[in-house]
Automatic annotation (TrEMBL):
Keywords: Membrane, Transmembrane, Transmembrane helix. The chain crosses the membrane at residues 35-56, 62-84. Residues 217-236 are annotated as: Disordered. It holds the Pfam family DUF4191. This is DUF4191 domain-containing protein. The lineage of its organism: Bacteria, Bacillati, Actinomycetota, Actinomycetes, Micrococcales. InterPro entries: DUF4191.
Length: 236
């Protein structure tokens, strides 16, 4: 009897890197009308500078001109990819900015090395869905409010008092993400954390985070953005 053929469906083929980049570009262009202009400038400027340097430093030398031009093209391609990545991240976050749970999505997907955070808020207002999130890193403890300052001030103060109960000289930074004019835009939140001056060692970061987690009640994430689905897509 002939063996039956394996009818197990094959997993769908993943798109190639170029196709992924094209998909990211198409998604970004829908929300960012200036992406094409920025990418063109990112490519043209390095090429122009490279050719100009070749003409100034090695006039009449064709070989050097070609080498400089190739270097400019490579630099231009790299600059285009950097611009695409930055603008794509900004476009992805603009889709969820202002929604409950948006800060949690950033803490889950974009925290730099040395920082510990969670998409789960440490305090939340069930009526307004305003929330306070916490991140711990070399820069100390950062409390991040999601919502207008007038509605999150009380929750922030309560969390600040809890952190001070740990004792010592733990630096506490408060960041507001919301409709206030001086609030930090969602897409700049992760970079804002990296600019905080280090005050803790790696061992102290883990100790402080574990202690705070033991003192914090577990709360459900605000209804709205699902951080798993809201995670910005990037080209590999």
């Amino acid at each position: 009897m002939a063996r039956s053929k394996d009818k197990t469906p094959r997993p769908p083929k993943q798109p190639g890197r170029l196709k992924q980049m094209w998909q990211v570009f198409q998604m970004t262009r829908r929300y960012d009308s200036k992406i094409v202009l920025f990418m063109i400038l990112a490519f043209v400027v390095p090429v122009t500078v490279a050719v100009g340097l070749a003409l100034i430093l090695s006039p009449g030398n064709i070989l050097n001109l070609v080498l400089w031009a190739i270097s400019g093209v490579l630099a231009g391609i790299l600059a285009m990819l950097i611009i695409l990545g930055r603008r794509a991240e900004k476009a992805a976050y603009s889709q969820i900015e202002g929604q409950p749970g948006a800060v949690g999505a950033v803490l889950r997907s974009s925290l730099k090395r040395g920082w510990v955070g969670s998409e789960m808020p440490v305090a939340v207002n069930g009526k307004t869905q305003d929330a306070v999130y916490r991140a711990v890193g070399r820069g100390g403890v950062v409390l991040i409010s999601e919502g207008p300052r007038t509605r999150t001030a009380r929750m922030l103060e309560e969390e600040r008092r809890m952190v001070t109960r740990l004792g010592g000289s733990i630096a506490i930074t408060v960041i507001s993400v919301g409709p206030d004019t001086d609030a930090v835009p969602l897409h700049k939140l992760a970079r804002r954390l990296t600019r905080i001056k280090p005050t803790l060692t790696k061992a102290e970061v883990l100790a402080v985070n574990n202690r705070l987690n033991s003192m914090t009640k577990k709360l459900p994430i605000p209804k709205g953005v699902d951080p798993m689905k809201a995670r910005p897509q990037r080209g590999n």
